[in-house]
Amino acid sequence: MISSGPTALTVQFRGVRGSTPSPARETVRYGGNTSCVVVRYGDELLILDAGTGIRSLGDDVARLFGARPINANLLISHTHWDHIQGLPFFAPAYSPHNHIRVIAPNGCGDKLKRALKNQMSPAHFPVGLDQMRGLTDVDELASDHTHLGNFSISVFPLNHPGGCAGFRIGVNGTAIGYLPDHEPYQTDRSGMPGGINPRRKALVDFVRDLDLLILDTQYTEVEYENRIGWGHGSLPESVALAVEAGVRRLALFHHDPSHGDNQIDQMVEAAQLQAGESPLIVQGAAENETITLGATVSPATEPRQQDFIKIAAG
């Protein structure tokens, strides 16, 4: 459990895979569910994306809250299926006693609402979105720099086909970045090398001095050469971005569905070597792992999955 003292910002990975779920013996340690991350500060729950990882989160929350109403914000980065496909299986959303606020980036509300309704239309799913009575209608962030409760939220447009929002989330002097689908800017339509691309420079400033950066790193350097334009990150550029921005901790995210645990281990090792003598800590995002920031927590008291949910219910 989290020790007494200053409130900590707690991050838990519920789905870390990109493109499509990949359940297999080879993916047990890092996990096979698609994108879903939960951020908690005090009694506030902020869910980032609704990939298949949100299903088990909903089951845990519903069981532990019991008859008490559940309040949470669900912030969706974009409408590609690996970021919304778990929502029809999110149990708390079917109870009218709950209040799950669905939020899109500014200007993207109508697009998100259409996508959510379409994936639950009769052609694709037997239950309609209107049955999810615990969800609010889709709201939008008021601007690219706003607040959700105690969380300050800033938005950055990422380099991804169809668009994707990256989020910088801060509270009480601690900040994390969530950049779920992003291709290095040296491949964008400007044709400018990454080192002088103004969008890349702006991104470096956006993630500067983060305590934790959760970043799309789907491909190795070799794999990326054959997937330019597909909208996803490469290992060398992820590390370079984090080092240049002075990020303290980098979580490689949106793992390729073909990558088993051992290959992700190798990518983490390669990233650590590239980071060299910089203070950057590199890890592979792993399902059900909890990271606590902004308070001193010893390894013995680092929250487990069940503790995270109990605290949220508390």
Structure, explained:
With 314 residues, this protein is of the alpha/beta class. It has a single domain (9-313), classed as Ribonuclease Z/Hydroxyacylglutathione hydrolase-like (Metallo-beta-lactamase, Chain A). The protein has helices at residues 53-65, 109-119, 198-206, 221-225, 235-245, 261-275, 305-313; strands spanning 9-15, 36-41, 44-48, 71-75, 99-104, 139-140, 145-148, 151-157, 165-171, 174-179, 212-216, 249-253, 281-284, 290-293. The strands form two sheets. Strands 6-5-4-3-2-1-14 form a seven-stranded mixed β-sheet. Strand 7 (145-148) and strand 8 form a beta hairpin. Helix 1 crosses helix 7 and helix 5 crosses helix 6. The longest helix has 15 residues, at 261-275. The chain is globular, with a radius of gyration of 19 Å. Residues 1-6, 187-194 and 296-314 have low confidence and may be disordered.
Secondary structure elements and pairings:
Layout: E1 9-15, E2 36-41, E3 44-48, H1 53-65, E4 71-75, E5 99-104, H2 109-119, E6 139-140, E7 145-148, E8 151-157, E9 165-171, E10 174-179, H3 198-206, E11 212-216, H4 221-225, H5 235-245, E12 249-253, H6 261-275, E13 281-284, E14 290-293, H7 305-313
Parallel strand pairs: 3-4, 4-5, 5-6, 10-11, 11-12, 12-13
Antiparallel strand pairs: 1-2, 1-14, 2-3, 7-8, 8-9, 9-10
